[in-house]
Specification:
The complex is a heterodimer. Chain A is of the alpha+beta class. Chain A has three domains: 2-94, OB fold (Dihydrolipoamide Acetyltransferase, E2P) (Beta Barrel), CATH 2.40.50.100; 97-158, E3-binding domain (Dihydrolipoamide Transferase, Irregular); 173-377, Chloramphenicol acetyltransferase-like domain (Chloramphenicol Acetyltransferase). Helices cover 29% and strands 27% of the residues of chain A. Chain A has eight helices and 18 strands. In chain A, the strands form five sheets. In chain A, strands 9-18-17-16-12-15 form a six-stranded mixed sheet. In chain A, strands 1-8-6-3 form a four-stranded antiparallel sheet, with no helix packed on it. In chain A, a hairpin with a 2-residue loop joins strand 17 and strand 18 (341-355). By secondary structure, chain B is α/β, with parallel strands linked by helices. Chain B has two domains: 2-184, 3-Layer(aba) Sandwich (Rossmann fold); 197-323, Rossmann fold. Chain B has helices at residues 6-20, 45-49, 61-73, 92-99, 102-105, 135-139, 152-164, 213-226, 244-254, 269-281, 303-309, 313-323; strands at 2-5, 24-28, 54-56, 77-81, 115-120, 145-147, 169-174, 181-184, 197-200, 205-209, 231-235, 238-240, 257-264, 290-294. Chain B has a seven-stranded mixed sheet, sandwiched between helices. The longest helix of chain B is centred in the N-terminal third of the chain and has 15 residues, at 6-20. The radius of gyration of chain B is 19 Å and the shape is globular. The two termini of chain B are 39 Å apart. The chains are: A alpha+beta, B alpha/beta. Chain A binds chain B through residues 120-125, 141-142, 145, 147-149, and chain B through 255, 282-288, 322-324.
């Protein structure tokens, strides 16, 4: 008689248990009820007792590994009995490995967690529709299964656990691309942020005189600064920092379908007026979804401006695989102490997010300082 | 409205359609004036319409159906009586390979307005060769329509629809249904194919039953009602075409399904209905689908053994209790 020793369910929500230690070795005799292995759930440690008397065979879960509830840990065979190869289940892979394989897919797509809950298909449908966590329910149906009526009663008594979904929007198109790229950026590039206030007196004067846009001025300043800091005009791909000769500035543009980043090529060769014109054209075409593909790619650095929405400052995510992104807040008149006197000046807060793998703090600070100096003095 | 037997309802349909349309004629073994059919459905019809239109045939089911198929494709409306449903096996080539396929093989140029009437079912202690229910065989052949009237009203209405249609219909009667009585209207009426009938409304469980089993299901429903279980009894009336919509909406309401049919369980009517619901409405099921059918065995001659094999209200009630 071959008996399986399985990972027990120690709590309602337990999905896996960790093997702490085996008290017995393969080939050891065990009594029914004798502790064989110590396991750990999220909450408690527990000695799993042998379900039968016999000899312990085929320990299939190593100490330290996570094992799903119900999986076989070992077999107990009768004296003199051999374990037939056919009944041995494949050795358990540590769950951690599987999770890592699946993580990437799960990040992009909502995948339902496959837990075995004794519930009828109808109960599962209703639970799905009303966001009810079935693990919280006690079943009253055949064989103790949760049936639709149980879910209905639970909703009536407790309300649903999570808010009722009014709409589900699949991640497709621009939304999906944005989700994918920004997740990858936020998880792979160690973001560091440097924040500086910039005196916009000159910029405001220029705007009043020539109607050039503040975003155009920022692009101009960034492009000029990048000429001096080529290291910031780079991408990191496959372990190589690639520094670019061309300075192509991407600009974050919001559209009804989501965020797009059209590119102003060789921005360092353009005057502010030219950038203003190019920017108006790009923005218009982007919002109409009429932008040629070549103007959507090839950026080497990105500028994003939320000043028009009264944002003081914000921490942007780098547009991967670029080295940095400059975020601009609103221009607001603030009291500034200069030469022991308080003066009112238009101030804009600039935030540089940079990939710390490419740039260190000091050069990044000097780079942002250069941008500020251009905005303050060299427009 | 009048109360008449299932047998008389069938005879009225035959008689009225023969009266109305002289291309309608009957052929079969011992259906004429000497014997008037094994179950007396054709009683008096030979006197009324003559031996030409109520034809006694030699004992060859293949020849009977073959002749009828030939007549049908020339524009006649033959109605075959096969004395026992079990004997349709002898005519299966004509049924499955000729009647069912001719419209298709000739690109729709030819219709086969043929009706094959035959009694199925056990319960009368006439053993393995005279007690089977083979409607699942016919469901499996594209081109055949399969009707299973369970009441006098449906017997007459469905038979008229079958006679007036252009496709071969396997018209499955039941030996135990012939004497049962029911109300039918005085005026001419038909019952459309593919429209199921809810025989009893309920909310806890759906019992899908065919032919004579409808009456067992209704009996089970009455007994379960005393226990507070509300049973919906669904009669498909025709298995081909099948009223999937009504079946599924009933399952959506009750969340539980018991399927009852004579005929063996394996690959039988109950298997097909269960598959339809599993494919199209599994998200509405609160319990496993239960099937009450014959075990995979010939029908025994011994009355106690036959009673054991045939589905009955006790087994239906047991199946319902298992999933409530």
């Amino acid at each position: 008689m071959v008996t399986k020793l399985v990972m027990p369910r120690l709590s309602l929500t337990m999905e896996t248990g960790n093997i702490i230690q085996w008290f017995k070795n393969e080939g050891d005799p065990v009594e029914k009820g004798e502790p064989v292995v110590e396991v750990l759930s999220e909450k408690i440690t527990y000695d799993v007792e042998s379900p039968a008397a016999g000899i312990l065979r085929k320990i299939s879960a190593e100490e330290g590994s996570d094992v799903p509830v119900g999986e076989t840990l070992a077999y107990i065979v009768g004296p003199g009995e051999e374990l037939s190869e056919t009944i041995i289940e494949p050795k358990i892979q540590p769950i951690v490995q599987i999770e890592e394989q699946e993580r990437e897919e799960e990040l992009l797509e909502h995948t339902e967690v496959r837990k075995r809950i004794p519930a009828s298909p109808s109960a599962k449908r209703m639970a799905r529709e009303h966001n009810v966590d079935l693990t919280q329910l006690q079943g009253t149906g055949f064989g103790g299964r949760i049936v639709e009526e149980d879910v209905q009663r639970f909703i009536l008594e407790k309300g649903t656990l999570s808010p009722i979904v009014s709409e589900e929007v699949p991640l497709i198109g621009i939304r999906k691309t944005t989700a994918h790229r920004l997740t990858s950026s936020f998880q792979t590039a160690p973001h560091s942020f440097i924040i500086m206030d910039s005196d916009m007196t000159k910029a405001v004067e220029l705007r009043e005189k020539t109607r050039v846009s503040f975003t155009a001025m920022l692009i101009y300043a960034v492009a000029k600064a990048l000429r001096e800091f080529p290291r910031a005009n780079s991408t990191l791909v496959d372990g190589k920092i690639r520094i670019y000769e061309d300075i192509n500035i991407g600009v974050a543009v919001s559209t009804e379908k989501g965020l797009l980043v059209p590119v102003i090529r060789q921005a360092d060769r353009l005057q502010i007026e030219e950038i203003t014109t190019a920017l108006e054209d790009l923005t218009e075409k982007t919002r109409q979804f009429q932008l040629p593909k070549e103007l959507m790619v090839g950026g080497t650095f990105t500028v994003t401006n939320l000043g028009m929405h009264d944002v003081d400052m914000f921490l942007p995510i780098i547009n991967p695989p670029e080295a940095g992104i400059l975020a601009a807040g609103r221009i607001v008149r603030k009291p500034i102490v200069e030469h022991e006197k308080v003066e009112i000046k238009p101030i804009m807060t600039l935030t540089l997010a940079y990939d710390h793998r490419i740039l260190d703090g000091e050069p990044a600070a000097i780079f942002l300082g250069k941008i500020r100096r251009i905005i303050e003095k060299e427009l | 409205m009048r109360e008449i037997t299932y047998r008389d309802a069938l005879r009225e349909a035959l008689s009225e359609e023969m009266q109305k349309d002289e291309t309608v004629f009957l052929l079969g073994e011992d259906i004429g004036r000497c014997w008037e059919g094994a179950f007396k459905v054709t009683k008096g019809l030979a006197e009324k319409f003559g031996d030409e239109r109520v034809r006694d045939t030699p004992i060859s089911e293949s020849a009977i159906v073959g002749a009828a198929v030939g007549a049908a494709i020339t524009g006649m409306h033959p109605i075959v009586e096969i004395m026992f449903g079990d004997l349709t096996t002898l005519a299966m080539d004509q049924i499955a390979n000729q009647a069912a396929k001719i419209r298709y093989m000739f690109g729709g140029q030819v219709e086969v307005p043929l009706v094959v009437r035959t009694p199925f079912g056990g319960g009368v202690n006439i053993a393995a060769h005279h007690s089977q229910s083979l409607e699942a065989w016919f469901m499996h052949i594209p081109g055949l329509l399969v009707a299973l009237p369970s009441t006098p009203y449906d017997a007459k209405g469905l038979l008229k629809t079958a006679i007036r249609g252009g496709d071969p219909v396997m018209f499955c009667e039941h030996k135990l249904l012939y004497p049962i009585k029911g109300l039918i209207p005085d005026e001419d009426y038909t019952v459309p194919f593919g429209v199921a009938e809810v025989r009893s409304e309920g909310k806890d469980v759906t019992i899908f039953a065919t032919s004579f089993m409808i009456h067992k299901a209704l009996e089970a429903a009455r007994m379960l009602k005393k226990e507070g279980v509300s049973v919906e009894v669904m009669d498909p009336r025709t298995l081909v075409p099948l009223d999937k919509a009504k079946l599924i909406s009933s399952v959506q309401k009750t969340g539980r399904l018991v399927i009852v049919s004579e005929g063996c369980k394996t690959a039988g009517v109950t298997a097909e209905i269960a598959a339809v619901v599993a494919e199209e409405a599994i998200d509405y099921l609160d319990a496993p689908i239960k099937r009450v059918a014959e075990p995979d065995t010939p029908i025994p001659f011994s009355p106690p053994l036959e009673r054991y094999v045939l589905p009955n209200e006790k087994r239906i009630i047991k199946a319902v209790r298992e999933i409530i």
